[in-house]
Design a protein that fits this description.
The chain is an alpha+beta fold. Helix content is about 25%, strand content about 40%. The chain contains 4 helices and 8 strands. The chain has helices at about 1-15, 45-50, 120-130, 135-140, and strands spanning about 20-25, 30-35, 40-45, 60-70, 80, 90-95, 110-120, 145-160. It has a 5-stranded mixed barrel with strand order 4-5-6-8-7. Strand 3, helix 2 (about 45-50) and strand 4 (about 60-70) form a beta-alpha-beta unit. The longest helix is centred in the first third of the chain and has 16 residues, at about 1-15.
Amino acid sequence: MKGFNILLVVLFVSFSSVGQDSQGNENGLKSYGAAITLENTKEAKHMLDAYHTMTAADTLQTKFTARVKEVCKVKGCWMKLDMANGEEVMVRFKDYGFFMPTDIEGKDVVVNGLAFVEEMNVEDQRHYAKDGGASDEEIGKIVTPKRTLGFEADGVLLKQ
């Protein structure tokens, strides 16, 4: 009987934490992934300056705030952030450990993680365009690799 009670406690604790990938805080922010704070957060325009000095082999551990331009409509597994001058940053989530809500376009987020620059091949561009709801015509126009600004987030704060 003692073993059965221990099993019940373990199961209760396990099931009570399932699905708790986000939590709110006192600042009206909802947290996803690793817990992060607003301390030392850069503005998008300052982060863009840092991206412009990077090459494809560079990475930078950082935290910045920007507006969500687009999010994966399938399950929230990536988002694009609007930076100054119409540029955007493609954000993916570390080890697919968490996802964002699919209805957050136009909302501000703080992302914490690893910034990098990459050459995105045509196949990946088309995949992300399809996930973003692009038409077949728009997808067909993607024919060359492009330099993209990337970010692997380990934590995100969503401003409500």
